UniProtKB/TrEMBL annotation:
The gene is NOP15. Pfam families: RRM_1 (PF00076). It comes from Tetraselmis sp. GSL018. Residues 13-36 have a biased composition (Basic and acidic residues). Residues 1-53 are annotated as: Disordered. This is Nucleolar protein 15. Its main location: nucleus. The lineage of its organism: Eukaryota, Viridiplantae, Chlorophyta, core chlorophytes, Chlorodendrophyceae. InterPro entries: Nucleotide-bd_a/b_plait_sf (IPR012677), RBD_domain_sf (IPR035979), RRM_dom (IPR000504). Residues 1-12 have a biased composition (Basic residues).
């Protein structure tokens, strides 16, 4: 009995080149998968950054509740390592919020929960524990100091009352007259029938002091 081979194409055995290319393809796919996995892992925040820090943000602080009062008040919860009231760089006035750093994060959490919504001098405090990723490295630069406010009222009064030369006084009067005219134009453009003696008529024509 003679057996006949089935009709059709004969399958060829894989060569050494094909096996090498197959291994290379699998290795390439594995490298791509590991690269994608690494990218996804890099995008995820680290557990340490998402953890709570020992820094408490305090908002809506009232007038008069500054560095000394801040440290003294929050020391009832535990050791306060650093404290800072955010102030305007030019005027030195408080911006209405502050930061306190405790020794342990657990103490910071207790203090924030206890003081959040606490009423103080008609103000309701807003307290929350900051995440480690939100704490700026230079947050407590120049902290633990009581900053003195600049006496701006005294400075402005001295600036207003200082002795001026006739030329300086004339320039000052011209600026005041321009402001007065602009104010009168705004009144007229609003449709108001209002008349008053202009500043130009009130100001003296010449210098008000004599040189000796």
């Amino acid at each position: 009995m003679v057996l006949k081979r089935a009709a059709g194409k004969r399958k060829s055995r894989p060569t050494e080149t094909d096996s090498v290319s197959g291994r290379d393809g699998k290795a390439k796919k594995a490298d791509e998968f590991r690269g994608e996995e690494a990218d996804e892992t890099a995008q995820l925040p680290s557990s340490s950054d998402s953890e709570d820090s020992s820094v408490v943000y305090i908002g809506h602080i009232p007038h008069g509740f500054y560095e000394k009062e801040l440290k003294g008040f929050f020391s009832q919860f535990g050791d306060v390592e650093r404290w800072r009231v955010s102030r305007n760089k030019r005027t030195g006035r408080s911006k209405g919020y502050a930061f306190v750093k405790f020794e342990h994060p657990e103490v910071a959490k207790i203090a924030a929960e206890a003081m959040d919504g606490y009423h103080m001098f008609k103000q309701s405090l807003k307290c929350q524990v900051m995440k480690k990723r939100d704490v700026h490295p230079e947050l407590f630069n120049k902290s633990n100091k009581v900053l003195e406010m600049k006496p701006w009222r005294k400075i402005e009064a001295e600036q207003h009352n200082k002795q001026r030369t006739p030329e300086q006084a004339q320039q000052r009067n011209l600026r005041a007259i321009k402001r007065d005219k602009r104010r009168l134009q705004q009144i007229q453009s609003a449709g108001l029938d209002f008349e008053y003696e202009s500043l130009q008529e009130k100001l003296p024509k010449g210098p008000t002091h004599k040189k000796f």
